[in-house]
């Protein structure tokens, strides 16, 4: 072998001495010699050939070589990377030689005009797995993440893992738009083949290296590839899918701050689709194992929960890192996917999942939405809560259980709280001095005032109905209190303050009268909520007489009925009263006292005497749950008749609220306003066909009535070309040409 060593040394010196113009005739002979060495079975000769090739690879040539190919060298160096020699030292030496050889091929070809050849799939399918195979030997994976490291020369030469990683980074750094996918796809094949998604530490490490090594504008290519692979593996075990999603999270965390291209909606759409698939698998396993609670099934269900949590975490992290204009679009997109009553076909299909599956999907999507809205600061509340977003969010379909209602309220808090006051209001309590909280607030803008005029009733209604639910727990009451307090801080002018007081008094009536047969804990909880809120509100508007009345009621309660205060009722062991009917008025907040106190400070208190009644929506009539329609039923006729023959039966159910309205004459005006509002709302939201049919019926009715009132008669013309005479009562009108009477209804009107 000494002759070979001498010959290769001579070749190397000739190679280094050649000028770039005269190197081409010599290269073919040289590469033929290197190939002979690599094919030999002697490790020393293989290393010798590799070293000579690396020296050649570092020489820059002026002109490209159109006939030279490196297919053999790619195959041979890749095989050397997988050396399994029985001697560990020899094995490491050959592997290092193989990695250095691959590095030489990459350097030689990427600087060549024919560099596209190295990026072909048949080459990448050998190069990338060879590098990953050696990178798996890294002992401390966590230390390998982040931007490229710079180990010393000695470490590179001695450690195949470090050398392979640096080669992998260099390869990815040279990748361009057209060949990025060819470099990434073999990574998935390697991870699948070696089952490295569960556990997925190495997979996460690989993709962090990829994301930090490629050019930032190509990040969305990698994300698209991960999403595509998730689709391919959608039938795999939950832990494998969770591993892929966690890799996606890490990739998104790096790409979200840079260019993510057109993949924003695609990321969310794919993740939401897999969320539905995961819930489907979970419920399918539960149904198949009904009656036989096996350990494997429960374990698989918990694995599916891992997948779902990983999806939610990814959605939330990605969404919260987007700029505000994109985040608002994503909020609308996710809300559009939530299955609620009356939504369009864009929501996730849950028809085959049943009620339990639909509820699971609703909870998962709302949890995702909660993470996306975290930290979102809109300039106006209208931008944060546009009608297409607010209407489904406050839908009765999302009030079916306490967890759903909690998520909806927390999402509202994220969007309403623009001055970060929520942390100061955490927990429901009687706040002795609100000024100690140092609450931040700005003057209410015109846009916010307009929003409350249009949508305030929706917010009040949601809070009102949320308080009447039997399955409320302490957290529900805490969130309801925070909702009222944030509305007061961010959106309350004098008119809104009066509405909020009416709402609070109505909630107090709910607890006292108990038409809904609520448990005693819920009734006391509502009373405590009203006390905590009115205490907060009275200090915020700083009307001394109002503060005095509220403080007096709270002091009386603390002595005689402490279970009406949040500090007592929400303790673990609280003695509840048997009934609330025997309590004195001193324990309740009285409308007349509040009206007196506010009236003296310039507030318009006329509306305080009108009991609050939540608005009725069309969705209530379609909803399966008990709604406000069951309490107050209002039938609205567009044109109630004056004629006894055509009188419309316009009735109301006889309930406590209805009787209360009938006794109070001042409530009549409010009723008329409510009826007019319902008519307007019906024309805005009802289907066109329904409105057209109803208007046609009313038009016919009006036509008949006008004919009766005016004694209108239409005399037929004597001939087709004649005229038609109209008489109304005793008045005689001028003749009208026949062609103008083609639409007699129109002429009559």
From TrEMBL:
This protein's record includes keyword Zinc-finger: no
Pfam families with a match to the protein in the record: EFR3_ARM (PF21052)
Record GO cellular component, one term: plasma membrane
Highest rank taxon of the organism: Eukaryota
Compartments it resides in: Cell membrane
Keywords: Cell membrane, Lipoprotein, Membrane, Palmitate
GO biological process: protein localization to plasma membrane
Protein's membrane topology: Lipid-anchor
UniProt record similarity statement: Belongs to the EFR3 family.
Name used for this protein in its record: Protein EFR3 homolog A
Source species of the chain: Pluvianellus socialis
Gene: Efr3a
